[in-house]
Amino acid sequence: MTISVEQVKELRQATAAPVLDCKKALQNTGGDFDLAVDWLRQKGLSTAAKKAGRQANEGVVDAYIHPGSRVGVIVEVNCETDFVARSEEFQALVHDILLHIAMANPICVDVDDIPADALARERELFREKALLDGKPEDIAEKIVSGRLDKYYKQVCLLHQPFVKDEDLSIGDLVKRAIAKLGENIIVHRFYRFELGK
């Protein structure tokens, strides 16, 4: 099947993937636009996973003050090169992360950042509730696991649904940026300030 330049251009505009990847995606999916988008997404996520171990010592520290000056956020997001740190796409990612933190109020970046005693306390509370509801021990453990996943989505930045697109987590947003920019990106830390708290 012959893939037209227009098809490649349309896919590139929709996904921002490299031209050769767009052409390959269309060839592998018989010219089907939606399947090609999915193919590129899968390729991007696997590429992001490969880059996860690489050093990310560049990046930016940026701030956001929500209108009304009642909430402010400072975040450090790292990447591999200063070139990417200054790019429009990286800056847009950082701004989206800042906005999300202001709105969603996470308490930590990822699960590993939750203090062990706080996590143990939550786990025990979920377990006791399940047992009080009359659930057998093995079922109670499954319930605890499910409730912990919900807890992570409430308190961990990378697990929270993105405020601009609930189908996408912040972790997925970062992975997409890794795939698009070709560098490892790490949300290193953040501080959120709210007036009177």
The helix-strand sequence is: HHHEEHHHHEEHE
Q: Could you tell me the number of beta strands?
A: 5
- Rg: 20 Å
Oligomer: single chain
**What share of residues are in beta strands?**
15-25%
The helicity comes to 55-70%
Helix/strand/pairing class, anyone? alpha+beta
The dominant shape is: globular
Mean pLDDT: 86
Secondary structure layout:
Layout lengths: L4 H11 L3 H10 L4 H19 L6 E8 L5 E9 L2 H4 L2 H17 L11 H17 L4 H19 L5 E2 L2 E5 H12 L4 E9 L3
Helix pairs in contact: 1-2, 1-3, 2-3, 3-8, 5-8, 6-7
Give a structural overview:
The protein is an alpha+beta fold. It is built from eight helices and five strands; from the N terminus they run H-H-H-E-E-H-H-H-H-E-E-H-E. It has helices at 5-15, 19-28, 33-51, 82-85, 88-104, 116-132, 137-155, 170-181; strands spanning 58-65, 71-79, 161-162, 165-169, 186-194. Helix 1 (5-15) crosses helix 2 and helix 6 crosses helix 7 (137-155). It starts with a helix and ends with a strand.
